[in-house]
Amino acid sequence: MIFSPDAFTGSILAVEGIKDAVVILNGPTGCKLHHGFLSDRQFPRESSHNPLAFQDEFYFGQPRVPCTCLDGEDYIRGSLEKFERALAAIAAKEKGLLMVINSPGASLVGDDLESVIKKAGMQDRCFVVENPGLSLPAARGFENVALALLEHMKLRSPHLPVNPKKVNLIGLSLLHKHWEGSVTEMKRLLSFLDLEVGAVFLAGTSLNEIKESGDAACNIVLFPEYGRRIVEWYRKSFGTPAVLSPLGAPIGFDASESLLREVATVLNIDPAPALAEIRKARKASYRQISRFYSYSGLPKGASFSIRAESSLALPLTHWLYSYLGMAPLAVKLLPGSDPEEAESLRIFLEEKGFCEAWDRDPALESTDIAFADGPTLQLLKSKECCKAGVEITLPEEGYIHIIPKTYLGISGALLLLEEIINGLRSK
Fold first, then answer.
1. Which end of the chain, N or C, is less packed with Cβ atoms under 10 Å?
2. What pLDDT is attached to residue 363?
3. Is 420 buried (19+), middle (13-18) or exposed (0-12) by CB count in 10 A?
């Protein structure tokens, strides 16, 4: 069983990742509840602290993802009247951009929702995404909605001068675990290169930051599944170069260093200050690893399995093998993984003599530690397919995080080391 969100979820979370944008879900209440909960859990807003203010017909007691609450009659006779009432009520309560997303069932009805928006004179503030991808992988829905948003918004003129100190972070979603900590860590690392972050597409950013994103010196892609098509749009529209690390997302010291070097090369700047920080972290981690190894013989030689998207699985597999000496026994990619990074991962496993691990279900192996989403880890532990587990993707098992965390950059590498060592130590 694969616990992986689809494009419908990816599209909703893309919009909900913008501070001043709101999804209007045109569909039944059952499609709203989970997405309303997930949006509020992943990115709480000020309104989230007063759910009693959202007892209206279209909010159903949740502050996020208002819904037209379609029923069987609406699917037969059409839903334009209900959508008109919902649009008026939601527009009066919400002050930002409104993006209408059809549920899978509503997309088959074929109602002319744009005519209602035009009648209300809200074309600048509201638009419809008819079919964001539905049951395709989450990353496809995320990119489809992101591109629709870029086409709808009026970004600053491409003829304005480039800001040499400004970069955008592309391909980060509310669906990525610890996304807030990841933004903080990437801003910290880039500050050593004397760079500032403009828009974070699309996790915690604002419409104004997106409007002004066209003057960035480059676009840094964190997770290619969620960003390749977006940076191509920027390249065609503004000529903005894209930066992608050959090792995937900046997970582990090697991949973090690789990304920073790529940024420095594209912008013709010195990466030394940032690389010096990574060297400090390597020294600090070495002391803990060597002490743990001295009495346990681990983590060297420990086996692991992974179920994740390729942009995460590639750098993690590379780092666990090359830095910690661990052995991959099963690496299974989630649907929608980036094909280029998937091929790089396959070649890496083949070169290191672990070709049998490629595309192997973690449930078919017994490993020391597994890396996956929460439900998958629970399933693997119940079947005694792993002794310990690290949640690296959503969905998670419900642990409430108060201290900001990340799996990216230096802080992410140290957190992963802590979880790996303690996971192996306790078994």
1. N
2. 96
3. buried
For 23, the token pair is: 């999804």
Q: From CA 19, how far away is CA 39, in angstroms rounded?
A: 12
Instruction: Assign 47 a pLDDT band (cuts: 50, 70, 90).
Output: low
Q: CB neighbours (10 Å) of residue 169? A: 24
Residue 398 — pLDDT band, cuts 50, 70, 90? confident
CATH number listed for the domain at residues 163-274 = 3.40.50.1980
Are the beta carbons of 142 and 9 closer than 8 angstroms? no
Question: Do 7-151 and 163-274 share a fold?
Answer: yes
Nearest to 218 by CA among 192, 238, 194: 238
Tell me the fold of 7-151.
Rossmann fold (3.40.50)
Judge if pTM exceeds 0.85.
yes
CATH node for 282-425: 3.40.50.1980
Residues 309 and 338 sit within 8 Å (Cβ to Cβ) = yes
Q: Using alpha carbons, select from 298, 309, 285 the residue that is nearest to residue 371.
A: 309
Q: Pseudo-torsion of CA 90, 95, 99, 105, nearest 10°?
A: -20
- Under 8 Å CB-to-CB from 390, ≥6 apart: which residues? 369, 370, 371, 377, 416, 419, 420, 423
* Amino acid identity at 9: T
At 19 the three-state DSSP class reads coil
Judge whether 132 and 7 are in contact, CB under 8 Å: yes
pLDDT at residue 407 greater than cutoff 90: yes
